[in-house]
Amino acid sequence: RIDERLLILQSATHESKAPAGLVDFERQHILQTLAASNWQIEGEGGAAEQLRLAPSTLRSRIKKLGLQRPSRL
Asked: What is the pLDDT of residue 41?
């Protein structure tokens, strides 16, 4: 199992040097986790809990990666 804490880079300095593949991997991992939790960020079973992140950290990553919840049809 991958330690998700290693996927979240702590500073913008490190992020700017991160290979594009790593950023894409992080984006996909977060998107998959959000989809599995029906975009529930906080609370029991929420994406933040699954990723072992503080909800505020996850929201920050969502914003930085430009992720948006898909529109409902």
From this structure: 97
Q: Under a CB-based contact definition with an 8 Å cutoff, are residues 58 and 50 in contact?
A: no
Give Cβ neighbours of residue 62 (< 8 Å, ≥ 6 apart): 30, 34, 41
Q: What is the pLDDT of residues 36-69, one digit of tens each?
A: 999 999 999 999 999 999 999 999 999 999 999 9
Taking the C-alpha atoms of residue 24 and residue 30, their distance in angstroms, rounded to an integer, is: 10
CA dist., res. 43 & res. 64, Å (int): 22
